[in-house]
């Protein structure tokens, strides 16, 4: 069971099917005694602390296919401390908008170059 802040900022709880039983997780934690637990999920990011205080960070997949706002984590782990920073990528719509603007700017630049008596070998550019 985990929680995630949705786009509206409200915490939501999720029940995951592919998890260990709580008793198995506790036994494993006691055996390994980790300082940090990292896990992955297709869509959701989750932060939680286990009963012994061990932090667990579930990282969402790094793909526009699963989220419109993919992100990744940068961890700094020292002998005394663990810090994390969530790094966001631009949304998919922003990237495609920038691609479209770049194509329009390129076509405009080529058209202006042709209008300044530069050689335009294609009839297409002369019609633009």
UniProtKB/TrEMBL annotation:
Q: Which UniProt keywords apply?
A: Hydrolase, Manganese, Membrane, Metal-binding, Transmembrane, Transmembrane helix
- Indicate the transmembrane segments per the record: 96-114
Q: Which GO terms describe its cellular component?
A: membrane
UniProt protein name? Calcineurin-like phosphoesterase domain-containing protein
Coiled-coil ranges per UniProt: none
| InterPro entries, sorted | Metallo-depent_PP-like, PGAP5/Cdc1/Ted1
- Superkingdom to which the source organism belongs: Eukaryota
Q: Which organism is it from?
A: Ciona intestinalis
A single Gene Ontology biological process assigned to it is: GPI anchor biosynthetic process
Which PANTHER family does the entry mention? METALLO PHOSPHOESTERASE RELATED, METALLOPHOSPHOESTERASE 1
Q: Which cofactor does it need?
A: Mn(2+)
Gene Ontology molecular function: hydrolase activity; metal ion binding
């Amino acid at each position: 069971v985990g929680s995630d802040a949705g786009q509206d900022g409200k915490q939501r709880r999720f029940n995951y099917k592919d998890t260990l039983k709580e008793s198995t997780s506790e036994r494993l934690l006691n055996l390994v005694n980790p300082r940090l637990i990292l896990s992955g999920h297709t869509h959701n990011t989750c932060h939680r602390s286990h009963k012994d205080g061990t932090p667990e960070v579930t990282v969402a997949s790094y793909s526009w296919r699963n989220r419109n706002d993919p992100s990744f984590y940068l961890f700094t782990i020292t002998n005394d401390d663990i810090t994390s920073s969530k790094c966001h990528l631009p949304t998919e719509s922003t990237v495609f908008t920038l691609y479209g603007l770049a194509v329009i700017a390129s076509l405009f630049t080529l058209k202006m170059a042709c209008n300044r008596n530069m050689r335009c070998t294609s009839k297409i550019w002369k019609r633009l």
